[in-house]
Design goal:
The chain has a single domain, classed as Amino acid/polyamine transporter I, CATH 1.20.1740. The chain is built from 16 helices and no strands. The radius of gyration is 23 Å and the shape is globular. The relative contact order is 0.15. It is found in: Membrane. Keywords: Amino-acid transport, Membrane, Transmembrane, Transmembrane helix, Transport.
Length: 433
């Protein structure tokens, strides 16, 4: 929908992102394990985790789905419990007592290092949000995306609002950023803010339970990384953007060579046994954080151009069987803010927080994905001599499933009539969930 060269660049950007996330999360898992025992060689743990995730993905989409269902159930229960726990602690109900309220938002204060400090964590936040777009990859393998996609997308929204934003607010209320147990050069490498919050409250035993949940969450991301990477690499091969053998899909629908490639690159996780583990972790993070911004911005821009092409070519919006509530406005919003994040990251990467001088190492750790995307784009542009796709020439049909638009419209009308016949609470539930 933009330019074949840009499609090549973003496709490989996304594939590389998930290729790197797998070993990154395995290293993070080994760091989390160190909360309990720093004596056991980290290589033993990453070998176990690597093997478990590879076995899960060899069971195909069913194995991935079942594993993620279990992981998600544990995470949801834990986060809900933590939110309740945090509210109780904040109100002075913990073993140590004492009302906290918004004290830490005044002393030491919110927004450490001001606006520049806020800008410096945008990409870290984006990395934490990355993976939400996997809903689109998984939907392609379902029997009825029209019904599964809306429900899945709405669940993603509520998971972000309730389980991500709310839990972070609670952490910010009960753990000051000056706590020396946080990740830093002087703090424990295995300390999670969630674990610190519980430990500071003086509740014995519970910090280990929460650390186990953090470990499960990290492994869940690693599991999603193998799934996302294998499907992306397979799609690239199908389009001629990667070696053809990587596009092989067996009778069970598994992109075997894509999974194997993820596993091979995942062996980088054994750097966890190296003394350079924190440094390697930082560079792996550099490859993944900004990649998400390029991916999201491109998705939004593609949607804008897709809808513009439909209008120019006289295609009816009735052909779109699902439209989100925010529609085009959401995509424009996404393009603008992803661009602003790129600008902010360039600024804070070149001139990091606490420094007025340019720092080359810091810049490449913050902006490493950008030259990779640019190099892929220029390589394909020069090689294939591609041109920017005009709206009138845009192909809106390739890749679509064969559907009977009229039959689907009749089905949707019947469903909407059924929803309208129900009470207010049911209608509200269906709208939001």
């Amino acid at each position: 929908f933009i330019d074949p060269a840009w499609g090549f660049a973003i496709g490989w950007n996304y594939g590389i992102q998930w290729l790197v996330v797998f070993p990154l999360e395995l290293v993070a898992a080994s760091m989390t394990i160190q909360y309990w025992n720093k004596e056991i060689n980290a290589a033993a743990w990453v070998a176990i985790f690597w093997s478990a995730i590879m076995v899960i993905n060899l069971f195909g989409v069913k194995g991935y789905g079942e594993a993620e269902f279990i992981f998600s159930f544990i995470k949801v229960i834990a986060v809900i419990g933590f939110i309740i726990f945090g509210i109780v602690i904040n109100c002075g109900g913990g073993p140590q007592g004492g009302y906290i309220g918004g004290t830490y938002w005044y002393t030491p204060g919110a927004f450490n290092h001001g606006f520049k400090g806020l800008c410096s964590v945008f990409v870290t936040g984006a990395f934490s949000f990355s993976g939400t777009e996997i809903v689109g990859l998984a939907a392609a393998e379902t029997s009825n995306p029209r019904k599964t996609m809306p429900a899945a997308i709405k669940q993603v929204f509520w998971r972000i609002v309730i389980f991500y934003l709310t839990s972070l607010i609670i952490v910010g209320l009960i753990v000051p950023y000056t706590d020396d147990q946080l990740f830093s050069t002087t703090g424990s490498i295995g300390a999670s803010p969630f674990v610190i919050a519980i430990r500071n409250a003086g509740v014995k035993g519970l910090p280990s339970v929460m650390n186990a949940v953090v470990l499960i969450a990290v492994l869940s991301v690693g599991n999603s990384a193998v799934y996302g990477c294998s499907r992306t690499i397979s799609a690239l091969a199908a389009q001629g953007h990667a070696p053809k053998f990587l596009g092989y899909i067996d009778r069970q629908g598994r992109p075997i060579f894509g999974i194997m490639l993820s596993g091979v690159v995942g062996l980088l996780c054994f750097v966890a046994a190296s003394e350079k583990e924190p440094e390697v972790f930082a560079w792996l993070m550099a490859l993944t954080g900004l990649s998400t911004i390029f991916t999201w911005g491109s998705i939004c821009f593609c949607h804008i151009r897709f809808r513009a092409a439909m209008k120019l070519q006289g295609r009816s919006e009735r052909e779109i069987v699902y439209k989100s509530q925010v529609g085009l406005i959401g995509s424009y919003f996404g393009v603008i803010f992803n661009f602003l994040v790129l600008v902010a990251q360039f600024w804070t990467g070149l001139f990091p927080v606490g420094s007025s001088k340019a720092d080359v190492t810091s810049f490449f750790q913050a902006y490493l994905a950008a030259p990779i995307v640019l190099a892929c784009f220029l390589f394909f542009k020069i090689w294939k001599k591609t041109k920017f796709v005009s709206l009138k020439d845009m192909d809106l049909d390739t890749g679509r499933r064969e559907v009977d638009t009229e039959a689907i419209m009749a089905e949707i009308a019947e469903e909407q009539a059924y929803i309208r016949s129900k009470n207010f609470f049911y209608r509200t539930w269906k709208f939001w969930c």
